[in-house]
Amino acid sequence: MRASILPVLTVSAGIVVLWYLGAVWLNWQVVWDMQARAGHAPDFATMVSLTLSHARPLLPAPHQVVVETWNSLTGPPITSPRSLVNHAMVTLSAALAGFGLGSLAGVLLAVAIIHVRALERSLMPWIIASQAVPVLALAPIVIVALGALGMTGLMPKAIISAYLCFFPVAIGMVKGLAAPDALSRDLLRTYSATPAQVFWTLRVPTSLPYLFAGLKVAVAAAVVGAIVAELPTGAQAGLGARLLAGSYFGQTLQIWSALTVAAVVSATLVGVVGLAERLLARRMGARA
Amino acid sequence: MRTGLLAAVVVLGFVLAIAGVHAPGEPGSLAWAGIALTAGLAAWLVKRLGDLPGQGWQALAAPLAFGATILALWEVLVVGFEVPMALMPAPSAIAARMASGAHLLWQDFVQTFLKAVLAGYAIGCGSGFLMALLADRVPFLRRGLLPIGNLVAALPVVGIAPIMVMWFGFDWPSKAAVVVAMTFFPMLVNTVAGLAAAGALERDLMRSYAAGHGQTLLLLRLPAALPFIFTALKVNAPLALIGAIVAEFFGSPTTGMGFRITTEAARLALDMVWAEIVVAAVVGSAFYGAMALIERRVTFWHPSVRG
């Protein structure tokens, strides 16, 4: 792990350098035209500094994104529609509600599938096939249908997130609950363990790594689901609404800062799930 | 034999039910009792089919019966309870719309899939693959890129769509660019993992033949990496479709699957939206299936294919 810190830093630095070069290159034309219209003929150094501080750049420089993100996080009061904290909370609450619902449903279905063979034979092919279907395209339907039922706000977004979370969790959990080998099951049978005891002392502990692998995929998908769910209906708040508004009005910095916050939220959630996995594994006596 | 009889009864029941709800007049409580009975029998049938031993078509019977039951119940309930179109269209309405709007669906398919998805998929997977070869040659780059690649997997990459629309315009190149960004990192990470998968024994053998880096790569390590590469190709297939569709939510010419979905959903023409979803589902599964098929042909030697 430690051996990769230097390479990661080097590659990240390389990306930042490329980003600055790209910002200069992409914004050059616009800035040059603006200066030419104003009758200026700036030298190279002035041009570079101008391309890196343009208010509506094609590609904002990294420091502009950082400053804009920081300003919209800390500047306006949290209740203001200009505060990214506000938007992030809206998206985060939908994503978390969906993650909880979807994961719970996925785990319950997996438990049912493990115990009823007919369910596995009839349902599993559909669950696996549905992985190949662009589920997110369903988002507008869910929103419109639930809107017709009078449900707006958090719930439709949470349901889309839940739907996205459901499949990775269900598939991972089915795999995990079926993972104990014949030897361990035979051992429990020689102890004349009841099915419930087999479930709680063998199947559930063995399934945890699989469950957490599914949960990590699911929590990232939940954020994507919540963001995309805000797109098609003109939601007022949320990171997706912020992205859409930024794209309508050409506010590049607003788009980039919303993206940054979305990335941080998503990475943090995945990190928290990973941490929970490690804590749980340690409590259960894993040595790692 | 008894399963066959049961299946015939269920099919007959659903045919009667569908004909009944489509006939003028309200279905009575007796009709609903019949429908409930048929649904119960269908559940029993699925259970029996699921308990059948066997492989091949017998393993397919249960999921097919389950899918058909859901479809029939959907039709009966939506038509019988006169659920408004804005809430949930009946399968028959969706099928009718697919037939009448076939030319629109075809246009959208060409715009979104043939142009944006295929171009973006090819460029994204290709460049991810090349980058993986480079990273394999330069260990420093590999150690730096892999953690970043894994981090990107946790990010909502599809959010870059508005930026790409700003850079590449409303037409398909901006959607292809989103697809490139979504498919690049899964390909990179998987290929790098695959290139490390060749066994030490085989590598030593190649070395004892005095094979160079290129020869070892071509003859040993790339073939050994194929299962990983195909995993990425399969994961990327639905991702690419999602990327292109969602990117169209941010602005597109007046054609494309994502454009159609948003505009028709806003007009509450849900039959068209569902028709588009059906196309997306079929295209997504076919794309995935094509990759899986090529995988079986190319990696015929792998234990998971030999069975």
TrEMBL record, chain A:
<dbReference type="Pfam" id="PF00528">
    <property type="entry name" value="BPD_transp_1"/>
</dbReference>
<dbReference type="InterPro" id="IPR000515">
    <property type="entry name" value="MetI-like"/>
</dbReference>
<keyword id="KW-0472">Membrane</keyword>
<keyword id="KW-0812">Transmembrane</keyword>
<feature type="transmembrane region" description="Helical">
    <location>
        <begin position="253"/>
        <end position="276"/>
    </location>
</feature>
<dbReference type="InterPro" id="IPR035906">
    <property type="entry name" value="MetI-like_sf"/>
</dbReference>
<dbReference type="GO" id="GO:0005886">
    <property type="term" value="C:plasma membrane"/>
</dbReference>
<feature type="transmembrane region" description="Helical">
    <location>
        <begin position="90"/>
        <end position="114"/>
    </location>
</feature>
<keyword id="KW-0813">Transport</keyword>
<comment type="similarity">
    <text>Belongs to the binding-protein-dependent transport system permease family.</text>
</comment>
<keyword id="KW-1133">Transmembrane helix</keyword>
<protein>
    <submittedName>
        <fullName>ABC transporter permease subunit</fullName>
    </submittedName>
</protein>
<feature type="transmembrane region" description="Helical">
    <location>
        <begin position="7"/>
        <end position="28"/>
    </location>
</feature>
<feature type="domain" description="ABC transmembrane type-1">
    <location>
        <begin position="84"/>
        <end position="277"/>
    </location>
</feature>
<feature type="transmembrane region" description="Helical">
    <location>
        <begin position="158"/>
        <end position="178"/>
    </location>
</feature>
<feature type="transmembrane region" description="Helical">
    <location>
        <begin position="126"/>
        <end position="152"/>
    </location>
</feature>
<keyword id="KW-1003">Cell membrane</keyword>
<dbReference type="GO" id="GO:0055085">
    <property type="term" value="P:transmembrane transport"/>
</dbReference>
<feature type="transmembrane region" description="Helical">
    <location>
        <begin position="210"/>
        <end position="233"/>
    </location>
</feature>
From TrEMBL, chain B:
<dbReference type="GO" id="GO:0005886">
    <property type="term" value="C:plasma membrane"/>
</dbReference>
<keyword id="KW-1003">Cell membrane</keyword>
<feature type="transmembrane region" description="Helical">
    <location>
        <begin position="273"/>
        <end position="294"/>
    </location>
</feature>
<feature type="domain" description="ABC transmembrane type-1">
    <location>
        <begin position="128"/>
        <end position="299"/>
    </location>
</feature>
<keyword id="KW-0813">Transport</keyword>
<keyword id="KW-0472">Membrane</keyword>
<feature type="transmembrane region" description="Helical">
    <location>
        <begin position="113"/>
        <end position="135"/>
    </location>
</feature>
<feature type="transmembrane region" description="Helical">
    <location>
        <begin position="222"/>
        <end position="247"/>
    </location>
</feature>
<dbReference type="Pfam" id="PF00528">
    <property type="entry name" value="BPD_transp_1"/>
</dbReference>
<protein>
    <submittedName>
        <fullName>ABC transporter permease</fullName>
    </submittedName>
</protein>
<feature type="transmembrane region" description="Helical">
    <location>
        <begin position="59"/>
        <end position="81"/>
    </location>
</feature>
<feature type="transmembrane region" description="Helical">
    <location>
        <begin position="176"/>
        <end position="201"/>
    </location>
</feature>
<feature type="transmembrane region" description="Helical">
    <location>
        <begin position="29"/>
        <end position="47"/>
    </location>
</feature>
<feature type="transmembrane region" description="Helical">
    <location>
        <begin position="147"/>
        <end position="170"/>
    </location>
</feature>
<dbReference type="InterPro" id="IPR000515">
    <property type="entry name" value="MetI-like"/>
</dbReference>
<dbReference type="InterPro" id="IPR035906">
    <property type="entry name" value="MetI-like_sf"/>
</dbReference>
<dbReference type="GO" id="GO:0055085">
    <property type="term" value="P:transmembrane transport"/>
</dbReference>
<keyword id="KW-0812">Transmembrane</keyword>
<keyword id="KW-1133">Transmembrane helix</keyword>
